[in-house]
Amino acid sequence: MDVEQLCRDHGAADVVIVHDVAEIDRRDGLSWFDAAIVDLMLGGVSTLDFAARLRNAGVPFVFASGYSDVEEIERSFPEIRLVAKPYSGDDLIEALARACGRAKAA
């Protein structure tokens, strides 16, 4: 699935794909995020610290991952939705819309 195109198809004006956590800091930290779809691992590195930074900065986000051990996520981020792979584009967009406050929770 092309997540970038999926986001554009649903109204995102600018979509940036980040391949490793260090790239985020090279791009001036969190200032350019309006929302995020966070895989639990980027370049073999956990993104949980990055997710905590997003939460602390008030940036809406969802986790999207095939990572099978969700206990740490549920414990550390109980309010954040995990969209498990394989997921549909509709599931991912709905989760992100809810995180951004643009859809009503079921």
TrEMBL record:
Sorted UniProt keywords: Kinase, Phosphoprotein, Transferase
Listed SUPFAM superfamilies: CheY-like
Gene Ontology molecular functions: kinase activity
N-terminal signal peptide: none
Any one Gene Ontology BP term: phosphorelay signal transduction system
Domain Response regulatory positions: 1-100
UniProt-listed InterPro entries: CheY-like_superfamily (IPR011006), Sig_transdc_resp-reg_receiver (IPR001789)
Modified residues (4-aspartylphosphate): D39
Name of the protein this chain belongs to: Histidine kinase
Organism this protein belongs to: Rhizobium loti
